[in-house]
Amino acid sequence: MPVYRDEAVVLRTHKLGEADRIVTMLTRQHGKVRAVAKGVRRTGSKFGARLEPFMVADVQLYEGRSLDIITQAESLGSYGALITADYGSYTAASVMVETADKLTESEGSLQQYLLLVGALRSLSRQEHGSHLTLNSYLLRAVSMAGWAPSFQDCARCGALGELSAGGQHSAMVVQMGGIVCDECAAPGSPRLDVETIDLLSALLTGDWEHAAESPERAQNQAAGVVAAYTQWHLGRGLRSLEHVAR
Question: pTM (2 decimals)?
Answer without folding.
Answer: 0.93
